[in-house]
Amino acid sequence: MNNSASRGFTLLEILIAMAVFAIMATMAYAGLSAVLDARTGTEKRSDSIAALQQTLYLLNEDLAQSLPRSIRDEFGSEQPVFSGGNGEDLLTLTRSVPEWSALAMHSQLQRISYRLENGSLYRQVWTVLDRTQQTQFRRKKLLNVTALDLRFYGSDWTTHWPAGGTGLPKAVEANFNLAGLGDIQRLFLVRE
User: Fold this and answer.
1) Among 174, 168, 175, 135, which Cα is nearest to 68's?
2) Burial (Cβ within 10 Å: 0-12, 13-18, ≥19) of residue 66
3) Which SS3 state, helix, strand or coil, does residue 25 take?
4) Biggest alpha carbon–alpha carbon distance for the chain
């Protein structure tokens, strides 16, 4: 009988093979872990960018459709046509709704407010302009922000509106600071 034909692996050969597989598995896990971490970071940035794009779109649409129409609040007090830079109330305005919109069946005007609360930007919409205490509004969280500053242009730049009168500013500048994205500045023209 030939011993070399039935010979198996030695203990040393098995230990070396296991060590090689362990090293390869560790390297593969490190590579997979790096890919998964990169994917998670990319998804977070992608979500932030999508929320920022939606916010910029809504701001642009609201400012482009703004109208010089004042309202009465829940207590009957007249509110300005357009206001901004008042603490948590970053921006408040009246806007028209395009006729092709699904909301066109209702009023052609809406009151819009952008509020900054606890690092989050919210958009509130009232479909009834002159409100009562029972008037409801819709509220949507748009974006998490580290900081958001607005400036308004009439005859000069200011951080509060109305400044020296009433009516609409000519332009609004928004300066966002977003975690992971840094500083972003946009200029919006207001409907004349």
Assistant:
1) 168
2) buried
3) helix
4) 110
CATH 3.10.610.10 fits domain 55-189: yes
Instruction: Collect all residues with Cβ–Cβ distance below 8 Å to 143 and sequence separation of at least 6.
Output: 48, 51, 52, 54, 55, 120, 121, 176, 178
Compute the distance between CA of residue 72 and CA of residue 166 in angstroms, rounded to an integer: 15
pTM exceeding the 0.90 threshold for the entire prediction: no
Alpha helical stretches, state H, the chain: 11-64
Write out pLDDT tens, residues 169-178: 999 999 999 8
Q: What is the pLDDT of residues 35-94, one digit of tens each?
A: 888 887 777 788 888 999 999 999 999 999 998 888 888 888 888 889 998 888 899 999
Q: What is the DSSP letter of 137?
A: -
